[in-house]
Amino acid sequence: MQVNSSSAVAQARPWLLAGLPARSWVFALRVWLAMLLALYVSFWLELESPSSAALTVAVLALPTRGQGMEKAGYRLLATAIGVAASIAIAGMFSQTGGLLLAAFAVWIGLCVYVAGMLDGNRAYAAALSCITVALIAIEQIDSPLQVFPTGVARGAAIGIGVLAVALVNEVLAAPDYHPVLASRLEALHRRVMDFAHAAIRGEAASTQDAAHLLRDIVALRPEIASLTTESSVGTARTAAARSAMVHLVNQLALARAFVALPAVFVTPDDRHGSLLAISRAHLRSEIARANDEPCRSLAAMRAGEHPLRQWRAPLYRSRRIAGEGAVRAAIHFMLVAIIFVMAGWPSTELCLALAAVIIGLSSTAPDPRGFTMLAVLAMPPACLLAGGLKYLVFNGVSEFQLLAIGLAPVVIGLALLIASPNPARSSLGRLILVFTLAVLAPSNPQNYDPETFLVTCLFAQLSAVLAFATQLVLPSLSNDRRTSLLLGAAHRELNRLVSGEVRHLAPEEAAFRDAARIGQILAAGGNSAAHQRAVAEAMCCFDQAVALRRCRAELDRLAAGPLAEAARAARTALAFRNDRAMLAAAEVLRLAASERHLTVEPALAALVSTSVAFEPQQTFAGPRREERQ
After folding, report:
1. 344 — alpha (psi -120 to 50), left (phi > 0) or beta?
2. Residue 366 to residue 581: CA distance in whole angstroms
3. What is the pLDDT of residues 51-70, one digit of tens each?
4. CA distance 223 to 216
5. Residue range of the domain that includes 156
6. pLDDT band at residue 473, thresholds of 50, 70 and 90?
7. Is 16 helix (H, G, I), strand (E, B) or coil?
8. Is 494 among the domain residues?
9. pLDDT at 527
10. Is residue 327 within 8 Å of residue 112, measured between CB atoms?
């Protein structure tokens, strides 16, 4: 047995080369080959901007096939939208430079707003729509007639880059992403099971742990979308993965409801004890049943089949937060534009375009200022690498073979950094690679004018510094402000639920949406006591909303039957948020069902759980029951 165990460990250990996993080297090799293929075809077709093809490969440098293809599709869509917007903006404001910049600032705000309402590669596509306008319309601000051919050339180069990535990934058998996501979902399922089993055993449960578990579940939502483009059964796998996520949130919510139930009710009415026993028994059986649902969804995901029950995994986004971020992004660009226009420096178009690129990309990051700071740090080494390649490695040569050899150490080295499991290192590696290619601007023939190169490097770094300076002058939305807006939205939605205004979502789907909001609250804060109180408040709203929706759904099933009157009285009790009234309504419903020999355990359990969730001591004025144990 010991020998077999050692063999298993040895097989599980990845093969290392120079201290790095072999899969990272294969990924770096794919990036280099795809970039060479994209440049070769662009040179052969004599495209105007072959560097756009290489930049596309750098942007689409992702470890798995599905991730790259999904991002490629959104990149093509955003490029088409950006080219159309460039033609429209340049056509209407070509004779007025100031109005053109103002119109572009409005376009940046609109794109940032849309990016704030989306996630994953969809948010990237919204940001890229403003970046495309910057690279086409703003760079051609003095020659508006060149906007259309520049847009066509950029679209053609991006298409070649996408095809190069797809071909290399197919030939070199890039790995699929669904096994990785399935393993991560299975790990989350085990964590949820451990939480549920601890709740059944009566062990104290931490609100912070539950909140972090919800955050980890909903964080997979944007990644699951990439399964659609991975294979012919990608749509089925996406549906199964989404259903598994919703089931995990539902199972965790049931465990939270069970652990909140008291051992006994402190009331003069002993009949409530039977209600509590019914509720505990029903919730225990529901937790056991809910444990099977993620297993079935995960099995369907691995088999490439649609799940028996397909759930949507709706995303929560605050229009207020997106709007404030959009206004700030537009003002940031206008401040940079005013500085360059007043200075009257050369190469203003390039600087404005780079500043717009950084502002647009930072809008998709959780911390825009942190992303811009990372761009400031990435620009100097990118300029040094581009200068070393141009004047030390290539040094006037034009043969493609030498270009391929010269690019190899830079592209492969930075691709290895992109493959790093550390998010900060990976982001830094991608930015350095993108900026290096942008400054180097591979072309046929290559431009070796040192004055042009130095001016480009100087203003590229100045653009990043000015973008960061504007975010210091007018800071992005603070974490405290973001948390306050998210909590306010949670309370407003809870009030609408109490008053009977119900969204057109199933209770399980609505719970996932609320969990996504909790994930955003966690992403906006730290470890301070104020942040922990905000998380506890958000979890209290989550528990109350889940209980209300489940209770209303159960009472709706009784609305058309012989227990309609008792169900109507119970709905009235919900509107007053009175835990005593809810328990009394549950007792009336139990007696009415007993007289008619009907089974209403789900409705009774839902009413009791809702009454517990709305007890005065269960509100944010004090800690939850499980935290007081």
Report:
1. left
2. 43
3. 999 999 999 999 898 899 99
4. 12
5. 21-176+317-473
6. very high
7. strand
8. no
9. 74
10. no
E strand map for 309-391: none
Looking at the domain assignment, is residue 506 inside a domain? Answer: no
Q: Region 456-480: what's the mean pLDDT? A: 90
Q: What is the three-class DSSP state of 527?
A: coil
**Distance in angstroms (rounded) separating the CA atoms of residues 191 and 198:** 11
Number of domains in the chain: 1
Alpha carbon distance, N-terminus to C-terminus of the chain: 44
149 neighbors 366 (Cβ within 8 angstroms): no
pLDDT category at 618 given cuts 50, 70, 90 is very low
Question: For the CA atoms of the chain, what is the radius of gyration?
Answer: 29
CA distance 486 to 500: 21
The rounded distance, in Å, linking the Cα atoms of 582 and 589 is 10
CA 584 to chain CA centroid, Å, is 44
Q: Rounded to whole angstroms, how far apart are CA atoms 266 and 441? A: 75
The 8-class DSSP code of residue 228 comes to G
Contact by Cβ (8 Å): 511, 316: no
Q: What is the pLDDT of residues 360-405, one digit of tens each?
A: 999 888 889 999 999 999 999 999 999 999 998 888 777 888 889 9
The encoded tokens of residue 148 equal 């259309």
SS3 track for 434-445: HHHHHHHCCCCC
- Decide: pTM greater than 0.85: yes
* Pair of tokens at residue 221: 């939502």
- Residue 478 pLDDT grade (very low, low, confident, very high; cuts 50, 70, 90): confident
Of 129-138, 159-168, 304-313, 346-355, where does mean pLDDT reach its minimum? Answer: 346-355
| Token pair of 207 as six digits | 């609100």
Torsion angles phi and psi, residue 292, rounded to 5: -80, -25
3-state helix, strand, coil in the chain (%, to 5): 80, 0, 20
pLDDT at 620 exceeding the cut of 80: no
Q: What CA–CA distance (Å, rounded) separates 167 from 9?
A: 35
pLDDT of residue 502: 60
Taking alpha carbons only, the member of 193, 152, 154, 167 closest to residue 52 is 154
Instruction: Give a yes or no: residue 422 inside a domain.
Output: yes
In a domain, 154, yes or no: yes
Q: Quick one: pLDDT at residue 12? A: 47
Which residues touch 267 (CB under 8 Å, ≥6 apart)? 580, 583
Q: Helices 423-440 and 368-388 meet at what angle, rounded to 10?
A: 50
Q: Which residues does residue 16 pair with via DSSP β-bridges, in sequence order?
A: 21
What are 121-135's pLDDT values in tens digits?
999 999 999 999 988
Beta bridge partners of 120: none
